[in-house]
Write a structure and sequence with these properties.
Structural class: alpha/beta
Radius of gyration: 27 Å
Number of helices: 20
Strand order of the largest sheet: 5-4-3-2-1-8-7-6
Helix content: 25-40%
Number of strands: 15
Distance between the termini: 46 Å
Length: about 550
């Protein structure tokens, strides 16, 4: 039973690719096709957001690997052109036909085409008579009438919107469409994990489809602070509301046997961890495991099967249509199980990250390697902090924002030996202890302040206690960043906010995470904000913000 459409990830290293090929060899009787990212003009970008083009190694090797897979394992491969923001005009269609021909001649016989008008022209079938044409999930096909129109236009395979996994009424109507088109294939996405009816999803894909190398992917962008990373914390029942097939194997079989679904599209085309998850699911499916993935274990452990809330949820969601606004069933199921909820501090930081840009903060004439948006975040967090530690205060631009927030105690650390200058050519004053003290005096309110004018690892930590906001702008290599977190972790409060400046730089995020691991801390929340380097209008060189707890 070949029911799984599995992605090929272009970022696999040689060992990972060998493991992937071995998986294909072992499970090819379950795999309908392998779909892969393709970059040919005019599709030089994709909804997943990775930036690479045909002449680069990643794009070439992905096409070559796909052809090798098709030849070796006799599994059809499918080129994915997933960008509805490429202009659907005749000029771009002509460009596509010209550049797709070498792939077709090499043996590619299946492709995701994002524009119905291109299919309607008949030119694709004229130039590529054996091409099997898929629509794109980005078109959010939710109605039987839409499926009918797409099949009539010439699509052979319809990717349904993921929300239909909870709409049996419409799935049964779509099944009737297949009576008019007996060879039509219907596919449903399995494990992407977005919340059902996500209001941001079209914008998320729009962002990625128009991304350049200067931009981070959507989830690392500043604007994403108001979407998934926020909802995941604020709504403890969010996992029950995601547009992801439930973990029971029987429910997947039911979609195929009763609801007209032909293939299940697995996720991971440009996310290696998610690809590994997809492979584990297929492996469990092939072994007839009743549960296909682990994330529901906390709901499945109740031994009182007759009254287990998740069993009622399992039936309810088959036709709930994600009408969460008028339901509350998922929240009730979550409330009936015991489990830790997020603290007030975590919820407060999530809101601060989302809305700090609305703060009113006095501007400063203190020069520095920062900007007003970074200062607003530090100010907003400092307002809710008791004891703040800043490492790398330089001339005091961010220190002034901390003092404006007026926490109880503030500890500043800087050896005042480095004279770092911005890359934009502006000249900052020489770094000095006296200049720092002079600059921040006018901002001091009620906070008790202590300055350590020395190397951070020479600080007498007995003078520091119960830090609940840690702002790090010291050396940003992996080793020093990790060591700094580990060194000061014993003066952290039980729950502490960590902010690392210059997250754009290599080593910052990795070093912070390594330091957290070494310090035996748990991450309760994290958000990466990346942007162009030294951006005056964004968040300077990016930020990495976390809430961690002592184990």
């Amino acid at each position: 039973m070949q029911i799984f459409s599995l992605p090929l990830n272009p970022k696999l290293n040689p060992n990972q690719f060998n493991d992937y090929c071995q998986f294909l060899a072992d499970h090819k009787h379950w795999i309908y096709d392998v779909y892969f990212t393709s970059r040919i003009p005019p599709f030089n970008q994709d909804a997943m957001g990775d930036v690479f083009v045909l002449h680069e190694e990643g794009a070439r090797s992905c096409i070559e690997n796909a052809l090798m897979i098709q030849e070796t394992f006799k599994i059809p491969v499918s080129a994915t052109f997933n960008n509805i923001h490429v202009r659907p005009d005749q000029k771009n269609l002509d460009i596509f036909i010209k550049h797709f021909k070498p792939l077709y001649d090499a043996g590619i016989r299946s492709a995701t085409i994002p524009h119905t008008s291109w299919v309607l022209t008949g030119q694709l079938k004229k130039h590529f008579p054996d091409l099997f044409i898929k629509n794109t999930i980005l078109r959010e096909v939710k109605l039987a009438s839409e499926v009918y129109d797409l099949a009539k236009a010439g699509f052979n395979y319809i990717n349904l919107d993921r929300d239909l996994m909870r709409n049996r009424d419409e799935l049964f109507k779509i099944k009737k469409v297949k009576k008019h088109f007996p060879n039509l294939k219907i596919s449903l996405l399995a494990n992407e994990g977005c919340t059902g009816g996500c209001p941001i999803m079209p914008e998320h894909y729009h962002y990625n489809c128009t991304r350049t190398k200067e931009d981070p992917q959507y989830f690392n962008s500043a604007i994403a602070r108001i979407s998934c990373s926020k909802w995941d914390i604020e709504d403890p029942a969010i996992m029950l509301k995601t547009a992801n097939l439930p973990p029971w194997r029987d429910d997947w079989i039911e979609l195929i046997d009763k609801c007209g679904i032909d293939t299940i599209k697995m996720h991971g085309r440009e996310n290696i961890d998610r690809l590994a998850e997809s492979m584990r699911i297929i492996n469990r499916f092939s072994k007839n495991n009743s549960i296909l993935f682990e994330t529901f274990d906390e709901y499945l452990q109740d031994t009182n099967l007759k009254e287990r809330p998740i069993d009622g949820w399992r039936k309810k969601i088959k036709n709930c249509k994600f009408d969460c606004w008028d339901c509350g069933y998922c929240d009730d199921v979550y409330a009936k199980k015991s489990g830790a909820k997020h603290s007030e501090k975590v919820l407060s930081v999530v809101d601060t990250v989302a809305f700090h840009d609305n703060e009113v903060l006095k501007s400063t004439d203190i020069p520095g390697l920062t900007n007003e948006r970074v200062r607003k975040l530090i100010y907003s967090l400092s307002k809710k902090a008791s004891n703040v530690l800043e490492i790398g205060c330089f001339l005091g631009a961010t220190s002034s924002a901390i003092l404006e927030g007026n926490p109880n105690n503030v500890y500043f650390i800087d050896h005042f030996l480095e004279n770092t200058q911005p890359a934009n050519g502006k000249q900052l004053p020489l770094n000095s202890k006296d200049e720092f003290i002079k600059n921040i005096k006018r901002y001091k309110r009620d906070s008790e302040c202590k300055l350590f004018a020395c190397d951070m690892f020479a600080v007498d930590k007995t003078e520091i206690q119960n830090i609940d906001l840690f702002f790090y702008d010291g050396p940003h290599d992996i080793f020093t960043t990790a060591r700094a977190v580990n060194f000061f972790s014993d003066v952290f409060a039980e729950e502490v906010v960590l902010v690392f400046d210059d997250a754009n730089f290599e080593g910052v995020v990795e070093g912070a995470r390594k330091g957290i691991e070494l310090s035996n801390l748990n991450i309760a929340f994290e958000k990466i904000i990346l942007n162009s380097l030294e951006s005056e209008d964004e968040w300077w060189n990016g930020l990495y913000i976390l809430v961690v707890r002592k184990k």
